[in-house]
């Protein structure tokens, strides 16, 4: 049998192994440790894992942080395991803002943290940006890569009825400000901002005035290449219809669950093509979760159900049929404040 050279072994074999196996193989020798610790290998490994779609669901509970396997869009029964946060804090004091390539952007008691739950590596970003810290009632954010493959963090802050935007560079370890749309009043406390959702080279936020009462709704889109913001219409443009949205990505395409209640509860899924939203699914088995029942609900999904939490605290469950589960099995990103999908990688939160 012909021997395999080291480069072929790295590309064809090691890059396809689980993250925890990679950490073990680093102990083979110094050469292996150097290669498997390189940024180039981390990116290659991440690409292979994204293709395999071996996702995990991380959930925050009263006493634990739990991780489940997700297979074809469904939670694998009996796969739950508990993990620890890097430092001691009640799990429900955390808030998930964004998930990308195994990294989670997390809020924890006025701190903004970039965390890899697989390796438990983390960095506290707000230590380098002490001007305002992070206020969970008024701030939001997202993770993305720029055209130079530098991992960046977008931080949206609302202070004094104004919106301020800043970008953190992992490569250089610094923050800098970027200009927001000055013609809006989205800094007002009457608006709620969703967490950011990355699709292709754009980060999307839902900005809404209210939940079940009349209120305006917008999509704020941030182009990660030009670092500029623009507005996109909400799928339901009639402000008289009480509604709310929840962003997800399917095969890297941005989609939105829209929950509305003109008379009875309606849940639909829209896909953005260009600047226009097109309806792709309508769900028949949905219901509002009462306030008393919310503590006993999973945070974003269970076996055949998706849980949609509004930025105003309302919760709706959507039970999926076979056709709907098939369409949604290729979900890339589905985040809630207490839950998020991610993949297990060796991507580092620091340079």
Automatic annotation (TrEMBL):
The lineage of its organism: Eukaryota, Viridiplantae, Streptophyta, Embryophyta, Tracheophyta. SUPFAM superfamilies: F-box domain (SSF81383). Pfam families: F-box (PF00646), FBA_3 (PF08268). It comes from the Eukaryota. CDD domains: F-box_AtFBW1-like. It comes from Helianthus annuus (Common sunflower). Residues 9-34 form the F-box domain. Residues 81-247 form the F-box associated beta-propeller type domain. This is F-box domain-containing protein. InterPro entries: F-box-assoc_dom_typ3, F-box-like_dom_sf, F-box_dom, SCF_F-box_component.
